[in-house]
């Protein structure tokens, strides 16, 4: 392929839009096909979650396409987790070192900035175009135009499916020979609830934190929005006690929410109405391999959708784009080599973040309220302070880093966990942890 | 539902045909829709593997519908594994006790008997009918008649998808909310080769055995056919050395097969031509849950396709039918209760046989040639002889039994393996195994 070649990107979401910028900047002709209407002119669909946590890996990719500054200016820094107990008492746990934070950002706002930027690079967006079929031999797409009701089949030099967890491109791959595929729905689903702004757009909870109401078998979180409001997300099991299925009457819902989230409930007007009106959404994990069939690739959620508990879904998808672009530079746009190398090196990393995201749900809903967990975080912070390059807490390796691969972070995190598990069995550790031999502890990492 | 109700079965394969007999015998009106032509009048497609191993669980179901005797009369008993080494030397390892055997049976012959029997019970078969869509709310099917080229949508009281590993019914379920699904292709594929009969339809290898050429990273097997021929199945990796991908030239293929299967190669006329002409087929495992959406059920391979190495795919599907029928009797044909109970009790068992089938590949291609493995089998046979109800070898629990669930067999097999692993570390065990305290060994099972 040469840079005059024509690439079809399926999906004008976050990943498809960012990818189209990268490709257009390399000189390719890029056409993006999107099933939905243009979110910039039509508000028919609000999208999925309202806000997202943008962190270092995502920012790195935005920097490369020249958008990091504009986006960071509208994002809200969240320096740590603010835990709310059953009495409404607060405790704060920083995410990393002083000055390290994640960013609450509007999904639709970010998406619009990316689409506008892509258009500046002559990317063309074709909305209301649904992908009906893919021919992997001809590298052709059959698209249904929802406006004209016409079907058109077009050939391209390359097709990239960035069309999300329910990808049409991946569905077509699924029925080809020797395509491994798994979709797994976790036991919990979620529902968003809205805390409006106070007077003068004031945030009614601490603005610069991610709020968590950890309740062991379930939890609620809240992220700040620029208009002073918060978007809460309630995570409940589908079945059993305290589940979306068991809570049906307004009275039960009200009793349950008031008992478990007393301070939040006061801030949510029309709580019961919101609960009944807002959809309950499932949480699915997707794994597949290969990601490449001839000259068609899947990327982002289409290749590796994960649960949201590490705040890494979008960041991992943006990192996909950055890595693909790096490989194109390394191999002078030799696509067959690039595609093969991309899926080979990237697959173990997306498997790793899938696992980390799932286990972080346990940490968020359960462990953050556990004194042992808090002590562990304190000791790890100390180790990181004394040996900043040697002992990097797992959360920081994943969130505040773009040079450690997810799979390396997972492996190192396991090693750290074994060391910390042992330390926490030390008698009187709560009182004596500051006398630990930190140098010796760090040296254990190298064994 | 009452017995006047109309049930659609999708797929006229082994499971769909047997299931239709069970249901018709209960009084239901049963219509079977099959994508292919009627195999009894059209030979356009030979089907998949030519022969299958029918064993106790499958026979039990055939007995219930009154077909066991007729089918056993055309089946060929296989009393054990006949191993062929690199020099063509043979060694025989029985499957069970004296008089226990599995049966080589023709897939198409068995299928035809089942269809003919179903028609006697007024089951109607509709061939060349492809399922295009399922409406789980209306319990309706949209079928495309390949002859008339017409699409028809019909409502039923119940729909059962017995349409195999690439089930159209399951594909429709896959895009409903919270449906867990995985398809996994193993590294090896297979190719069938044919050993014709000798003079007077004489079998040119021992007739009453399943032949194995175990070669560690690959293997070949052969099953006898009633006409005196054998169907060989060569299992090779797809990639790497000694793989379907690496063996491309006729010279390489000939050298490889002659070196590894010298005695078999002499019996296969036109070996290279057969190798090039016969297809290479993939091996896929399918898991999904739930199996039920409203009044639609998937069963057999459509719900739980497994690899063929335990010879249990068909037997497990037949057992599905038997268990479903038992539950209908138990609950007076109260289908909502039956469907829920069926998937709940049966899922752990099909997961177990999936795992057993995969690990038996290792045993067949590798361990059966290992002296330690043979000693283990000898000790286990002795334990079984002395305590026939207490120590039942895993293979026998799976193959020569219909009252031990697959999940129970797997759990018991693990316990046995731990005990045997320890015994085999005994010094001089080869010479002294007959002096073992067998009573004490068996008592370990109860700890």
TrEMBL record, chains A, B:
Protein family per UniProt: Belongs to the aromatic-ring hydroxylase family. KMO subfamily.
A GO molecular-function annotation: monooxygenase activity
PANTHER family associated with the record: KYNURENINE 3-MONOOXYGENASE
Pathway linked to the protein: Cofactor biosynthesis; NAD(+) biosynthesis; quinolinate from L-kynurenine: step 1/3
InterPro entries in the record: FAD-bd, FAD/NAD-bd_sf, Kynurenine_monooxygenase
Reaction catalysed by this enzyme: L-kynurenine + NADPH + O2 + H(+) = 3-hydroxy-L-kynurenine + NADP(+) + H2O
Keyword Nucleus included in the entry's annotation: no
Sorted UniProt keywords: FAD, Flavoprotein, Membrane, Monooxygenase, NADP, Oxidoreductase, Pyridine nucleotide biosynthesis, Transmembrane, Transmembrane helix
Obligatory cofactor(s): FAD
Protein name as it appears in the record: Kynurenine 3-monooxygenase
Described purpose of this protein according to its UniProt entry: Catalyzes the hydroxylation of L-kynurenine (L-Kyn) to form 3-hydroxy-L-kynurenine (L-3OHKyn). Required for synthesis of quinolinic acid.
Annotated ranges, domain FAD-binding: 7-330
EC number per UniProt: 1.14.13.9
HAMAP family: Kynurenine_monooxygenase
Bilayer-spanning residue ranges: 6-24
Keyword Oxidoreductase tagged: yes
């Amino acid at each position: 392929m040469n840079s005059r070649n024509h690439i079809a990107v399926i999906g004008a979401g976050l990943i498809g839009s960012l990818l189209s910028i990268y490709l257009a900047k390399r000189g390719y002709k890029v056409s993006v096909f999107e099933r939905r209407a243009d979110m910039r002119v039509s508000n028919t669909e609000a999208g999925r979650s309202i806000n997202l946590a943008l962190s270092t890996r995502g920012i790195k990719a935005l920097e490369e396409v020249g958008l990091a500054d504009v986006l960071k200016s509208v994002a809200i820094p969240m320096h740590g987790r603010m835990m709310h107990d059953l009495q409404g008492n607060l405790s704060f746990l920083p995410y990393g070192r002083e000055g390290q934070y994640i960013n609450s950002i509007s999904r639709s706002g970010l998406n619009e900035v990316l689409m506008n930027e892509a258009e500046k690079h002559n990317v063309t967006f074709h909305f209301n175009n649904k992908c009906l079929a893919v021919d992997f031999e001809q590298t052709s797409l059959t698209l249904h135009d929802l406006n004209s009701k016409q079907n058109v089949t077009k050939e391209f030099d390359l097709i990239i499916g960035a069309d999300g967890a329910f990808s049409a491109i991946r569905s077509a791959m699924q029925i080809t020979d020797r395509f491994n595929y798994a979709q797994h729905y976790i036991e919990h689903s979620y529902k968003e609830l809205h805390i409006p702004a106070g007077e003068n757009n004031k945030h009614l909870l601490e603005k610069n934190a991610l709020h968590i109401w950890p309740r062991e078998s379930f939890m609620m979180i809240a992220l700040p929005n620029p208009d002073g409001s918060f978007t809460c997300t309630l995570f409940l099991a589908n079945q059993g006690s305290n589940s979306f299925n068991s809570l049906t009457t307004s009275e039960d819902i009200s009793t349950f929410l008031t008992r478990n989230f007393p301070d939040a409930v006061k801030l949510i007007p029309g709580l019961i109405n919101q609960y009944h009106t807002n959809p309950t959404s499932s949480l699915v994990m997707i794994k597949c391999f290969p990601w490449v069939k001839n000259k068609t690739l899947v990327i982002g959620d289409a290749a590796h959708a994960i649960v949201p508990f590490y705040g890494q879904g979008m960041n991992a998808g943006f990192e996909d784009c950055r890595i693909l672009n790096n490989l194109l530079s390394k191999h002078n746009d030799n696509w067959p080599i690039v595609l093969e190398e991309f899926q080979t090196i990237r697959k173990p990393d997306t498997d790793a973040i899938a696992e980390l995201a799932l286990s972080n749900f346990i940490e968020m809903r359960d462990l953050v309220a556990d004194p042992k967990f808090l002590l562990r975080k304190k000791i790890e912070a100390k180790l990181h302070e004394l040996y900043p390059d040697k002992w990097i807490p797992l959360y920081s390796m994943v969130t505040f880093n773009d040079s450690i691969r997810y799979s390396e972070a997972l492996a190192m995190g396991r090693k750290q966990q074994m060391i910390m598990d042992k330390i926490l069995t030390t008698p009187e550790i709560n009182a004596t942890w500051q006398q630990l031999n930190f140098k010796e502890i760090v040296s254990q990492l190298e064994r």
